Amino acid sequence: MARSSRRRDLPLDLFRKVEGPSLLASLGATREVLCRTRFPLRSVDYQASREIIARIDDLAGLLTGDRTYFHAKSVSVDYNIPT
User: Domain residues for 24?
Assistant: First the structure.
């Protein structure tokens, strides 16, 4: 009798909870390197890196519900400084 090599997938919500944090960490590190790399503009390398960054943002959206998860958030500044 042959054993089935088919793996059992986790339910999606459990996958996001269990695997999501480590996957997000890896995706974030990759995205950061691609964003900092200075490819020549209009080169195939530049275009490919932009496409990969977009797909990473799509995955972040699926995992967290926020496609802008890795985007720099602006810091709000309180200009009402007491004198």
Answer: 12-64
